[in-house]
Specification:
This protein is α/β, with parallel strands linked by helices. It has helices at residues 27-35, 48-52, 56-60, 80-92, 107-110, 122-134, 155-164, 188-195, 212-222, 239-249, 258-276, 278-292, 300-306, 312-325, and strands at 5-6, 9-10, 16-18, 40-47, 71-76, 97-102, 140-145, 169-173, 203-206, 226-229. Strands 3-4-5-6-7-8-9-10 form an 8-stranded parallel β-barrel, surrounded by 6 helices. Strands 1-2 form a two-stranded antiparallel sheet. Helix 4 packs parallel to helix 6 (122-134) and helix 11 (258-276) runs antiparallel to helix 12. The protein is globular and about 60 Å long.
């Protein structure tokens, strides 16, 4: 197998991508995913209007670090001119890749014609993409869905047209906008895009890859160039390492030890506090705890405290108690 490349960025034979997730794919979490083997990561999506207005929250999301490379910054919006201007602002942050979000199904994004909303207007989607490609020297990639609903799954044709206006890779989530995250992702259409003889760019599949076995199945069955992992990585950055190990050896790695889980959770929340301040840093790390400590019996009381406490000091104390509580009893 040859290395998969986006423009001249080499990503290895079967790259694993960290999906752009709002309030999840921030620098503290990306640091952990990178360490555990993510080959290409994307930032949280950034509003084009926010960038143009110089909104602090949007600007902060442009922050990327050398150790994260290759890294893509993802932008979204419904106005072609705003997206063109946002692309130029994004280019100044010097990412390796600029990604366009044509997949977010959330109501306040999609119903304004951004994210997956643009799937209702394919000609505009193509025009917008062409303008973005023209306005940057960085490689442009797209993340999208199969279509708006059951009756508009035009992804095979859409992917080809996007390639024709200059995108360098496409990630496809195997659901329609209408499905949101319900039901099973349908990878057969992703495979059709990949097997279209006119496609020359990498095609990455996304949706329901939550085990090493599933990643291998998607590779073997659908022939995609790599997989993008979203929800399965939340509070579980080890998924990247586990998939790579399984692909190489056919064996499953043991689950991370309690100490590894505690260390990762502590690094995550500490970095988040440094990054966003105590209040927001603690708040945004909460959703990860369920997965960091998944499968631990009797963990619920600890979790309840972790998602209600307000200070980093208290969180550190709770982690110490967790360590104590699950220590094997020594026998003499």
């Amino acid at each position: 197998m040859n290395d998969v490349k986006i423009a001249d960025i080499s990503l290895g034979e079967f790259p694993l991508l960290l999906a752009p997730m709002e309030d999840v794919s921030d620098p503290p979490f990306r640091a952990l995913c990178k360490r555990e083997g993510a080959d290409l990561m994307y930032t949280e999506f950034i509003s084009s209007e926010g960038l143009i207005r110089d909104a602090a929250k949007s600007r902060q999301k442009l922050d990327i670090f050398e150790y994260e490379r290759p890294i893509g910054i993802q932008i979204f919006g419904s106005e072609i001119e705003s997206m063109r201007m946002a692309t130029q602002i994004t280019e100044e942050a010097n990412p390796d890749i600029i990604d366009i979000n044509y997949g977010c199904p959330v109501k306040n994004v999609a119903c304004k014609g951004a994210g997956a909303g643009i799937l209702q207007d394919i000609p505009k989607m193509i025009r917008m993409t062409a303008e973005i490609v023209k306005s940057t020297s960085k490689p442009v990639t797209v993340k999208t869905r199969l279509g708006w609903d059951e009756n508009t799954k035009y992804i095979v044709e859409v992917a080809e047209r996007l390639q024709d206006v200059g995108i360098q890779a496409i990630s496809i989530h195997g659901r329609t906008r209408k499905q949101m995250y319900k039901g099973d992702a349908d990878w057969t259409l992703i495979a059709e895009v990949k097997n279209n003889p006119r496609m020359r760019i990498p095609v990455f599949g996304n949706g329901d890859v939550d085990t090493p076995q599933k990643a291998v199945e998607m590779r073997n069955k659908y022939g995609v160039d790599g997989v993008m992992i979203g929800r399965a990585s939340i509070g579980y950055p080890w998924i990247f390492k586990e998939i790579k190990h399984f692909m190489k050896t056919g064996e499953l790695l043991p689950e991370p030890s309690l100490e590894e889980r505690l260390q990762a959770a502590l690094q995550h929340v500490t970095m988040a506090v440094e990054w966003k301040g105590e209040k927001l840093g603690i708040f945004e790390t909460r959703r990860h705890y369920t997965n960091y400590f998944k499968g631990l019996e009797h963990f619920k009381p600890f979790r309840t405290r972790l998602v209600t406490t307000e200070t980093l000091h208290e969180i550190e104390m709770i982690f110490d108690e967790v360590r104590e509580f699950y220590q094997p009893v020594e026998t003499h």
